[in-house]
UniProtKB/TrEMBL annotation:
Native source species: Sphingomonas aurantiaca
Listed InterPro entries: ATPase_NBD, Carb_kinase_FGGY, Carb_kinase_FGGY_CS, FGGY_C, FGGY_N, Glycerol_kin
Protein name listed in UniProt: Glycerol kinase
SUPFAM superfamilies per UniProt: Actin-like ATPase domain
Stated family: Belongs to the FGGY kinase family.
Length: 495
C-alpha cells in the first residue's frame, strides 16, 4: 500500500519549493525553482504572480510524483506581506505582486506618521508605519493602477498575501481566505481581537470587500481542484514562513526563540498568550492560532541576510556558490576592519530606516574579496545581536539557546560566529527546512496525523550546537566596529 505523506508548498522570496514529508515528520522529496525578481525603480521590488503560480504547480506535481506516496493534506507557507490583487472572475492579477522588501510607500508612511497615526497602528496591529507591511502597498495599487479603485469598490477584486492567492488558485477560485499569522502582517488586522480593523481600513482607504476570511493556522481551508494531483486534496495548514518556522522548530513554550536565515532574517520569540509591546523597535505579531486561541511572538525583522550572499554571487560575481563564503571566511584571521551594512532596501528592526542604503566601510589595500565575503556573513550575525539586545532590553528574553534554520544556517562558520556574537548557544536542527516542515505539521494536524504541538515537538531533532568561544573584549570590539559602520550608513544624520 502507498505510504501516507504530507505536501508542503514553501513560496519564498527568491524560490518556490514543494516538499514531501512522512508521517514521522522527516522530509522525503524537495523540488525547488528560483524565479525572477523585478526592480522597476530604486527601492522597488516586484514578482509576477503568474511565475509564482506556475512554479507552485510544477513543483508540487513533481514532488508528489517523485515521492509516490498518497498525499493526505497540503500545507502552504509563504513570503509574508507581499501583496497581490486579482479579479474574482478571471483570477488575473491587476498588477505585479509588490514584494515585502519594496520601499515605494516610504513617503506615505512618513506622512501617516507625521499625522500622528503610529500609536494607534502599534496598539491595534503590533506593527509600525514602515513600507514593509502590506497595507500601504495595497493602497498604492488602489491609488496608482488605473481603474483598480473603482473595480474594488464594485466588489470585483480580491486582495491577498501570497498564501491567499495560492489558496484561491489551488481551489479553483472557490476559497478566499488567509490565516491569522499572515493577517497579522498586513497593518489591517487587530491582533488582540483577531479581526480586520475598521480604523486601519479607514486610515488607508481600503474597501473591506477586498479582504479574505481569516482562519486558524491548522484547519480545513478547502480542497485542491482534481486536475492538480489526480484527485482533490485537502489544504489543512497555512502560515507565514516565519511563523511556520516557529512551528517547525517546535518553539511552543513561552521564551522559546528561533531565527531563520533565508533572504532576510527573522527572530521570533514566543511570548505565549501575552502580546508584549516593544520599546526597542521589535514587532508584536501572531505566532499561530490553534482552535481559536492566539499565541503571540515578539519579532525582529532583518531585510537582508542570505540576500547579501546572493548579491556576492549575482551582483559582484565574487563567489560561485553561497557555500564558498564558508572557506573564504575561515581562512582569514580577522575581519581586517571591513564591515558591510547590507541596507540594500533600507534597514529593518531595530533601526527602521527605509532610506538607508548599503555600505562597505573600512577598506584598505590589504582588503580582499574574502574580507567582503566575511563582512557579509558577519553583518547578519551583528544584526541578529542587535535584535537579541533589543529583546533583552524589552525584558522579554532570558539567556536560553536560540534555534536557527534556513539556507544560511548550513554555514558552520556563520553559526559559530553567531554564537560568539550572541554569547548564547546556537542550535541547528537536523532539518533546516523548518518552514516547510511547519506547514506540513499544521496540515497534518488538520487531518489527524498529529494531535498537537507535543507530537510535533517529539519529531524535532538536533544536528549540532554551536557554543560561544570568544572573549568579551573581542566581542565588544567587533560590535563597536559594527555600530560605527551602521552610524555611517544611517540616513538620519547625527546633529
Ligand atoms: N552555505 C551558505 N552560506 C551562506 N549563505 C547561504 C548558504 N546557502 C544558502 N545561503 C543563502 O541562503 C539563502 C537561501 O535560503 P532559503 O532558506 O532558501 O531562502 P528563501 O526562502 O528566502 O528563498 C540565499 O540567499 C543564499 O544566498
Ligand atoms: O523569503 P524569506 O524566507 O526570507 O521570508 C520573507 C519574510 O516572510 C518577509 O517577512
Amino acid at each position: 500500500m502507498n505510504e501516507t505523506i504530507i505536501l508542503a508548498i514553501d513560496q519564498g522570496t527568491t524560490s518556490t519549493r514543494s516538499m514531501t514529508f512522512g508521517t514521522d515528520g522527516v522530509p522525503r522529496q524537495t523540488v525547488r525553482r528560483e524565479f525572477a525578481q523585478h526592480y522597476p525603480q530604486s527601492g522597488w521590488v516586484e514578482h509576477d504572480p503568474e511565475d509564482i503560480w506556475r512554479d507552485t504547480v510544477a513543483t508540487l506535481k513533481e514532488a508528489a510524483e517523485a515521492d509516490g506516496g498518497t498525499v493526505a493534506a497540503i500545507g502552504i507557507t509563504n513570503q509574508r506581506e507581499t501583496v497581490v490583487v486579482w479579479d474574482r472572475k478571471t483570477g488575473k492579477p491587476v498588477h505585479n505582486a509588490i514584494v515585502w522588501q519594496d520601499r515605494r510607500t516610504a513617503k506615505l508612511c512618513a506622512q501617516l506618521k507625521a499625522d500622528g497615526n503610529e500609536p494607534l497602528v502599534r496598539e491595534r496591529t503590533g506593527l509600525i508605519l514602515d513600507p514593509y507591511f502590506s497595507g500601504t502597498k495595497l493602497k498604492w495599487i488602489l491609488d496608482e493602477v488605473e481603474g483598480v479603485r473603482a473595480r474594488a469598490e464594485r466588489g470585483e477584486l480580491a486582495f491577498g498575501t501570497i498564501d491567499s492567492f495560492l489558496l484561491w488558485r489551488l481551489t479553483g477560485g472557490k476559497v478566499h481566505a488567509t490565516d491569522a499569522s499572515n493577517a497579522s502582517r498586513t497593518l489591517l488586522f487587530d491582533i488582540h481581537k483577531g479581526a480586520w480593523d475598521q480604523d486601519m481600513l479607514r486610515m488607508l482607504d481600503i474597501p473591506e470587500s477586498l479582504l479574505p476570511e481569516v482562519k486558524d493556522n491548522s484547519t480545513n481551508f478547502g480542497e485542491t481542484t482534481a486536475d492538480l494531483l489526480g484527485k482533490p486534496v485537502p489544504i489543512g495548514g497555512m502560515a507565514g514562513d516565519q511563523q511556520a518556522a516557529v512551528v517547525g522548530q517546535a518553539c511552543f513554550q513561552r521564551g522559546d526563540a528561533k531565527s531563520t536565515y533565508g533572504t532576510g532574517c527573522f527572530v521570533l520569540l514566543n511570548t505565549g498568550e501575552e502580546a508584549v509591546t516593544s520599546k526597542n523597535g521589535m514587532l508584536t505579531t501572531i505566532a499561530y492560532q490553534l482552535d481559536g486561541k492566539i499565541t503571540y511572538a515578539l519579532e525582529g525583522s532583518i531585510f537582508v541576510a542570505g540576500a547579501a550572499v546572493k548579491w556576492l554571487r549575482d551582483g559582484l560575481g565574487l563567489i560561485n556558490r553561497a557555500a564558498d563564503t564558508h572557506d573564504m571566511s575561515t581562512k582569514l584571521d580577522g575581519n581586517g576592519g571591513v564591515y558591510m551594512v547590507p541596507a540594500f532596501v533600507g534597514l529593518g528592526a531595530p533601526h527602521w530606516d527605509p532610506d538607508a542604503r548599503a555600505s562597505i566601510t573600512g577598506l584598505t589595500f590589504a582588503a580582499t574579496g574574502s574580507h567582503i565575503a566575511r563582512a557579509a556573513l558577519e553583518s547578519v550575525a551583528y544584526q541578529t545581536a542587535d535584535l537579541m539586545n533589543a529583546m533583552v532590553a524589552d525584558g522579554a528574553r532570558d539567556a536560553r539557546q536560540i534555534r536557527v534554520d534556513g539556507g544560511m544556517a548550513a554555514n558552520d562558520w556563520f553559526c559559530q560566529f553567531l554564537a560568539d556574537m550572541l554569547d548564547t548557544d546556537v542550535v541547528r536542527p537536523a532539518n533546516i527546512e523548518t518552514t516547510a516542515a511547519g506547514a506540513a505539521f499544521l496540515a497534518g494536524m488538520a487531518v489527524g496525523i498529529w494531535n498537537g504541538p507535543d507530537d510535533i515537538a517529539a519529531t524535532w531533532k538536533e544536528d549540532r550546537i554551536f557554543t560561544p568561544a570568544m572573549t568579551r573584549d573581542a566581542r565588544s570590539s567587533l560590535m563597536e566596529g559594527w555600530q560605527d559602520a551602521v552610524d555611517r550608513t544611517s540616513s538620519r544624520k547625527k546633529p
